[in-house]
Design brief:
The protein is of the alpha/beta class. The chain folds into 2 domains: 19-254, 3-Layer(aba) Sandwich (Aspartate Aminotransferase, domain 2), CATH 3.40.640; 257-357, Aspartate Aminotransferase, domain 1 (Alpha-Beta Complex), CATH 3.90.1150. The protein is 36% helix and 16% strand. The protein has 10 helices and 14 strands. The strands form 4 sheets. It has a 7-stranded mixed β-sheet. A 3-stranded antiparallel β-sheet has the order 11-12-14. Strands 1-13 form a two-stranded parallel ribbon. β6 and β7 form a beta hairpin. α1 (17-26) crosses α7 (239-254), α2 (45-62) packs across α7 and α3 (76-88) runs parallel beside α4. The longest helix is centred in the last third of the chain and has 21 residues, at 257-277. It is globular. The structure holds pyridoxal-5'-phosphate (PLP). Residues 11, 76-78, 103, 149, 153, 172, 174-175, 193 line the site of pyridoxal-5'-phosphate.
Length: 358
């Protein structure tokens, strides 16, 4: 696959090349079943084995005990914004939210359908350029949960710590899932859309602790009740997406699991931020201690140069570097599957671009 470009897409994002080659090998015929996996019943032994293997990989990677349910749901991470308060916010009750970007703002908005989503801290006034320091948070000990977004895909910020709270944590880990260890004991629920770090679009991984599950509000519409899905395979799951997620998780275990990928990610991020900080031609958009190791955002001296940077990068095989419109500039998403060579190529291109235009 030598003609593959270096892909910095924020999501759906790059998948490991090994996984794509394995997929190519298995379509149209998987092992000896006579068809591909995407054409068989979701109740077949083959699919059941694949889904169970994916769950087993997640247990291994995160150290999840049997008290954790692992669900493969649809509706995107955005559905979770609604489904979480529907299930866990007592009607008229209150839950705390850390407002650190566009996605957390969308999450808190949904809580208002059921009770109060209280913003315990926010960096909105600074265009979400940092993670508010815990000593500024106003936490409610009676909150049903504390919701936070561990990595803010659009703004390029990331929690460098896990919040301390007396109530269960609920985390939108969509854009940094399985890139760093999680102290699962603190959490009631963790969710992540697959399309950034663990697979293609179409499945959202939802991890729920049994004790948290027990606290859900009743009654609930059947499909939106987490209990429906922890009890049995209720409807057709996103078979293709789960099939690929299993492969990505297996690839990740082969990379040394979370500690292994964390080391690789730290080196990639350091290479890129060191280049940004080398002089003032490139300028990071977020406060240094809030910088994301997944989405690296930066500006150039002018919008014209930024447009040229993106266009010429594309011609050099460096794709999808345009920043989100609410930040502007450049965003390089360097998820787990982004190879170090892609970051090296980007830094080489940044150096050459500065020499030419600086
Ligand atoms: C942190 C975060 N949460 C939620 C979402 C929304 O995910 P979905 O499009 O799967 O609903 C995104 C999408 O980019 C995201 O980055």
């Amino acid at each position: 696959m030598s003609e593959r470009a270096f892909n910095f897409s924020a999501g759906p994002g790059v998948l490991p090349e090994e996984v794509l080659l394995e997929l190519k090998e298995e379509v149209p015929v998987f092992k000896s079943i006579g068809t591909s996996v995407i054409e068989i019943s979701h109740r077949s032994p083959t699919y059941t084995e694949i889904a169970e293997a994916a769950r087993a990989h997640l247990r291994t990677l995160l150290g999840l005990g049997e008290d954790w349910h692992i669900l493969f749901l649809q509706g995107g991470a955005s559905m979770q914004f609604h489904q979480i308060p529907l299930n866990f916010l007592p009607r008229g009750g209150s839950a705390d939210y850390l407002d650190t970007g566009a996605w957390s703002a969308k999450a808190v908005k949904e809580a208002a359908f059921f009770g109060t989503g209280k913003i315990a801290a926010s960096s909105k006034a600074d265009n979400y350029n940092h993670i508010p320091s815990p000593d500024t948070w106003s936490l409610d000990p009676n909150a049903a949960y504390l919701h936070y977004t561990s990595n803010n895909t659009i703004f390029g910020t990331q929690f460098s710590f896990e919040p301390n709270a007396s109530v269960p944590l609920v985390c939108d880990a969509s854009s940094d899932f399985l890139s760093h260890p999680i102290d699962v004991d603190r959490y009631g629920l963790i969710y992540a859309g697959a399309q950034k770090n663990i697979g293609p679009a179409g499945v959202t991984v939802v991890l729920i602790k049994e004790s948290f599950l027990q606290g859900r509000v009743q009654p609930l519409p059947t499909m939106l009740d987490y209990g429906t899905h922890t009890a049995k395979l209720f409807n057709t799951p996103p078979v293709f997406a789960v099939y690929l997620v299993e492969k990505v998780l297996r690839w990740l275990i082969g990379k040394g699991g979370i500690p292994g990928i964390q080391t690789i990610n730290a080196a990639k991020a350091k290479t890129l931020y060191d280049r940004i900080d080398a002089n003032d031609f490139y300028r990071g958009t977020v406060e240094p201690d809030s910088r994301s190791k997944m989405n690296v955002t930066f500006r150039l001296p002018s919008e014209e140069l930024e447009a040229t940077f993106i266009k010429e990068a594309q011609e050099e095989g460096l794709q999808a570097l345009k920043g989100h419109r609410s930040v502007g500039g450049i965003r390089a998403s360097i998820y787990n599957a982004c190879p170090p060579e892609a970051v090296a190529a980007l830094v080489g291109y940044m150096n050459a671009f500065e020499q030419k235009h600086g």
